[in-house]
Amino acid sequence: MDGIHDMGGMDGFGKVEPEPNEPVFHAKWEGRCLALNRAMGFTGIWTIDETRAGIEELPPDVYLTSSYYRKWAVRLENLVIERGLAGADEVKAGHALRPGKTLKRKLNAADVPNTLSRGSYARPALAPARFKIGDRVRTKNIHPATHTRLPRYARGRTGVVEALRGCHVYPDTVAVGQGENPQWLYTVLFDGRELWGDDTDPSLKISIEAFEPYLEPA
Amino acid sequence: MAHSHDHDDHEGHEHGSELSEMQLRVRALETVLAEKGYFDPAAIDALVQAYETKVGPHVGAKVVAKAWSDPAFKKALLDDASKAVLGFGVVNRVGDHLIAVENTPQQHNMIVCTLCSCYPWEMLGLPPVWYKSAPYRARAVKDPRGVLTDFGVTLPAATSIRVWDSTAETRFIVLPMRPPGTEGWSEDKLAALVTRDSMIGTGLAKQANEAA
Questions:
Q1: Quick check: A73 contacting B, CB < 8 Å?
Q2: Which residue in A95, A141, B96, B114 is deepest, having the highest Cβ count within 10 Å?
């Protein structure tokens, strides 16, 4: 979706402000919120792309004015209610009023060390790769109303395939419950001037990780 | 846990009402989901503790220091970082999508996720607030030299800039340039020069005379 989350190239947000000696969490609830999201993700009830879509679908004013972990908390509330894992009445009450659903997996404390690493999103290829290293490709000018990982700033632009990254779960379908639909993933390199015009630093190059359906031969 | 409830309340006073509201809201959610039996409540404590104490940029720093010291490891890292870093730190595997990119006098690399907050957690821990913030995500792909200025870094004009937007499940870590005057240093001593920002590409490794 052409949402507020798709920020690449926007002006007006000001300087980046690094915080010296930044703590891992700025408040205890942030750590709890992160851990809750991880623990619920472990159950297998939703995919990483569905959770990303859950953040992207927050209203723009909420997105821009909420801290990072506040967005995660609101998203988790929304997801557990949407999926029937808890009722809005229970979330409001702060106590379970009915028994829980049975889920595929349950995270135990002893399993935590093994959950710190990420799973693999690679999948067997269903077809040969359409492009090879060095091919000139153009990103499609697409504007799906649902989740996509092709950023706006890189749509309808010409670049070069720099690397093949294997065949991966396709976010655009898995996010809307239409399956993993594995697709070849490429690193596509753009000249800065192709994206931002002739006034751009001529030494600048930018790459995106592009799924094959985003690309056409140029 | 390291934080007591008193500390919690203290934070609420310092930072205003959103925090108090969020403390209550997240606590309510945790209680409901735990009572439903969706996870072992002790797993939440274990996760928080792991992210506070075990996973962090010290893992990536060890990898960089080894790459500076061992040419065969450096080659393996640049060829297939996922494989090369097996055995580092506290994680037993890193998924299979880690990519290491090397800074040289000719090219400086910078990592961003314009769409959300993708970051090599296993190597660097959780991302800092600025990495997830609108200013960084908006500007890194368009004006990376300007972003570097915000970090107090000025590159030579002859150094080109390459920005990697983490738009899929591949994750990137920058291999910064080894500072001069560190010949013969141990990997431990070298690792102390490797900052988090130098592995994102918003900073450079510390100089030899800045060693702790």
A1: yes
A2: B114
Whether residues B163 and A169 touch (CB distance < 8 A) is answered with no
Backbone angles phi, psi at B22, to 5 degrees: -70, -35
Domain A136-217 has CATH 2.160.10.10: no
d(CA B134, CA B112): 11
DSSP H helices in A43-143: 48-56, 60-65, 68-82, 88-93, 112-115
Per-residue H/E/C for B117-157 = CCCCHHHHCCCCHHHHCHHHHHHCCCCHHHHHHHCCCCCCC
Torsion over CA: B72, B77, B79, B82 (sign): positive
Contacts of A25 in chain B (CB under 8 A): 48, 51-52
Q: Are residues B39 and B79 in the same domain?
A: no
Q: Which residues of A touch B54 (CB under 8 A)?
A: 116
CATH number where B63 lies: 3.90.330.10
Q: Is B82 a catalytic residue?
A: no
Contact B22 A168 (CB under 8 A): no
Where are any strands of DSSP class E within A75-200? 136-139, 158-168, 183-191
Of A68, A114, A206, the CB nearest to B132: A68
Rounded to two decimals, the ipTM of the complex is 0.97
**pTM, 2 dp:** 0.94
Side chain identity at A39, as an amino acid letter? A
Contacts of B161 in chain A (CB under 8 A): 201, 203-205
* Overall fold of domain A28-115: Cyclin A; domain 1 (1.10.472)
Taking only the tens of pLDDT, chain A with its 218 residues reads 999 999 999 999 999 999 999 999 999 999 999 999 999 999 999 999 999 999 999 999 999 999 999 999 999 999 999 999 999 999 999 999 999 999 999 999 998 987 777 778 999 999 999 999 999 999 999 999 999 999 999 999 999 999 999 999 999 999 999 999 999 999 999 999 999 999 999 999 999 999 999 999 99
B117 part of the active site: yes
3-state secondary structure B12-59: HHHHCHHHHHHHHHHHHHHHHHHHCCCECHHHHHHHHHHHHHCCCHHH
Backbone angles phi, psi at B29, to 5 degrees: -65, -45
